[in-house]
Amino acid sequence: MYGLGILNGFLVTMKNFIKKPVTIQYPEERNPQHPRFRGEEFVWYEDRCTACASCAKYCPLGIIKIVTHPSGGKLPEGDAYAIDVFDIDIGRCMFCGLCVEACPYDALFMGSGFEESKYKRADLVIHADRLRAAEKHPSTWFRPQLEGRGYDPQSDAPVPWKEAGRESWPHHLPQRPGEPGADGADAPSSPAGH
Ligand code: SF4
Ligand code: SF4
Q: What is the pTM of this model?
């Protein structure tokens, strides 16, 4: 009986010995991520952002800090607040994406990276300057306009704000036929025409 048990044990060992490993040699190798992967660095298009702070209000953890002042610079177009502070504390983020869902102007996207380890928690706060300067590789999560054209944030070029488009869901489509986007196509939008 004991001999049979040992033999069975060896068979399991041998089976796993010749099986293709599921682990990889990180960081030399990296697992591919799904385009909808909700990464940690966020993509923020300031040109689309009116600093309405909807993203901050909807964040269940209160980790988005926005400080603004009236800009007075775009009065004919209705104006947008000027942004003094736009911080996201990803050290406390649970990547629920509610901030992205809440953004009325498609100015905020989830990111696509997953390598944000730091020695200090304070360094995990992403400030506006970093968001401004970052290469834009937005996740396609909750952004059908990117998913619809097959964008892959892992391998495709960065997306500038004019090409990020607006979601083509019916409640965002222009009502009159002939207007850009009325046929369901993504229309480039401007800060004046969110
Ligand atoms: S990212 Fe979107 S929701 Fe947040 S302040 Fe800018 S426009 Fe408003
Ligand atoms: S993903 Fe969720 S927890 Fe993280 S900043 Fe956005 S709303 Fe807050």
A: 0.79
